[in-house]
Amino acid sequence: GQSLEQPSEVTAVEGAIVQINCTYQTSGFYGLSWYQQHDGGAPTFLSYNALDGLEETGRFSSFLSRSDSYGYLLLQELQMKDSASYFCAVRGVSGSARQLTFGSGTQLTVLP
Amino acid sequence: GAGVSQSPSNKVTEKGKDVELRCDPISGHTALYWYRQSLGQGLEFLIYFQGNSAPDKSGLPSDRFSAERTGGSVSTLTIQRTQQEDSAVYLCASSLLGAGKETQYFGPGTRLLVL
To answer: What residues of chain B lie within 8 A of the CB of A103, using their CB?
Structure first.
């Protein structure tokens, strides 16, 4: 089976840096993705790591260590609009498919 | 271009009734996924279609749930004899496999309430 763990809540102030961690257990591994979801909205893709290391996309960066089955999402220069839920998702193998399994999500609250 | 669309956006039904939820994926996307999200929870995988291959139904919670994808495009998720625990947001996503990241593009979801 596949499982992911991430913190349920994180709070930070505007302008700060916050790191959201994700550990996973999967059968097979093809990559770690991050999605953002605002209240009442659809998840939107943020970042993807297939190999070890850091991927940077503007204020957001994502890191992966396959040997540790661990990754994180780093958000810099936090803005109020970054308040949302953030999900890590692992593409592993379940049954016959390369299935995407999502974590339970981390609710980020950005304070003024 | 147009994104993933779903209909209806909201559905209220009585326990025991059947419901059909529709998903129109992004044109040309070969893969289509259905997920369920309960309030404050993560996304629960339901079913996955890829091209003409047999769908992966491993996430369907019971035989009351079924889905089909016609012509490799539009998909319908059917829930028979709905129960109150079926209340959730049902999200559809599509992706273009072979594009490396296999980014999934989500629709706005259908909010289902079973009374």
So the answer is: 42
